[in-house]
Sequence to fold (349 residues):
Amino acid sequence: MTDEIIARKTGSIGRITLNRPKALNALNQPMVDALLATLTAWRDDADVKAVVVDGEGEKGFCAGGDIRMLAESGQDGGDAAWTFWRDEYRLNTLIQEYPKPYVALIDGITMGGGVGISVHGSHRVAGDRTMLAMPETGIGFHPDVGGAYFLPRLRGETGAWMGLTGARLKTADCLAAGVATHYVPSQNMVSMVAALESETLDDDGEALEAILERFAGDPGESDLALTQPLIDAAFAGDDLDEIEKRLEDAGDSWSKKQLSILKSKSPTACQVTLAALRKGADLEFRDVMVQDLRVSMRFLDEGSDFYEGVRAVILDKDNAPDWNPGISREEAERWFRPLGEGREQTFLD
Fold:
């Protein structure tokens, strides 16, 4: 098992620490493999009453996945990207269906793959350093890892706004949006974990809730209280052009800023993302994961904006991508076609 995942049983809990701090704990294949093996073993372990997951270092819980590898695999025509996504989506599904409390301490940068291993769990505990986003359209990709499941289920059009613009939510916003379930001040995190490790937890989760409540604080006011009406008015519907037009017509400073951000993203990725979110609103979780793998692979096969986005943001870091012209809603449908035989998403059971 990789040393980039530290897994141990302490008291009534299974503790997992993502241990790749220099990469902000971004996931790679060995980490996904280790997480799958550990969580599968603990699922049926009567001694483990809850799982607690955190990230090493103060900056990031988990900043995403191994984007460079994914792009290289797509360009080389290898299977590494397909294998990674298949296994990562299996992991997301395992967490979403986990029969025990799954407590993710998202006290730091939480993006992409990091959202996938936190937001689908039963407990998402924000701290003062929390900054959560799904920024994939900025690299010519889509909010995968179940983004098309949880984003449409947030209040109003919050999910469409986050998925299209890559909006970053701080602590209070995460609570207001329902992305986080609890808030514990960063200075209390160590003591809270110590309590979880030392105190006996029960099967119904009451003792766990009591500990979280004991160390909780006041996250303050969320900006979403002010911007929610603007978000809901602008980001409704399945027509990307209409969304841009509503932002332009609104004329206020917030809407102008969102329009500028939206126009900086890959037009193709935005069109596919909007379609994925609208479809995902009516799908069960496993069906979304099937959709995610189809769409992800199509970005390697047909969505060359992904390679340009990786070049601009990850490799050259000039942050000046030369996007392809946008596609229509009808053209976006080809991203959702079934994959070939033996290539569709499968699950552990």
